[in-house]
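Subject: design request, 136 residues
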């Protein structure tokens, strides 16, 4: 098998892994956003927007658009910060130790972090998304 074909397969595997991690993260964040005890209804719209934009950026990366990787990294980092702050605010306002919706938020944020790892660390993905040279 040709080396560049192998690298392309590894990049597609990373994209599939990232897509699965984002899917699971969105599931948890939808559970968090729509929980009856969640005092921040605006998070429902934010979660829908994140699902839409992460999907669009994943499609852009499959089309080998390098900028989409950077935008996805920035979007996921911002989402981790925003949802993390929301979960922290929810725990500080709660009488109990950990309000019911917070574990779902932690799960979603954990899977966002899992998706961030290959976006920043995978050489195969970085090369796959790099601008093509003549003859590629």
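Subject: RE: design request

Done. Sequence follows.
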């Amino acid at each position: 098998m040709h080396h560049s074909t192998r690298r392309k397969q590894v990049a597609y595997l990373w994209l599939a892994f990232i897509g699965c991690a984002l899917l699971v993260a969105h599931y948890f964040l939808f559970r968090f956003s729509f929980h009856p005890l969640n005092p921040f209804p605006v998070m429902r719209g934010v979660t829908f927007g994140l699902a839409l934009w992460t999907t669009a950026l994943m499609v852009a990366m499959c089309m080998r658009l390098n900028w989409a990787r950077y935008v996805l990294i920035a979007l996921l980092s911002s989402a981790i910060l925003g949802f993390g702050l929301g979960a922290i605010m929810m725990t500080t306002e709660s009488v109990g130790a950990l309000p019911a919706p917070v574990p779902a938020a932690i799960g979603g944020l954990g899977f966002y972090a899992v998706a961030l790892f290959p976006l920043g660390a995978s050489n195969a993905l970085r090369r796959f998304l790099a601008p093509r040279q003549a003859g590629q």
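The mean pLDDT is 89.
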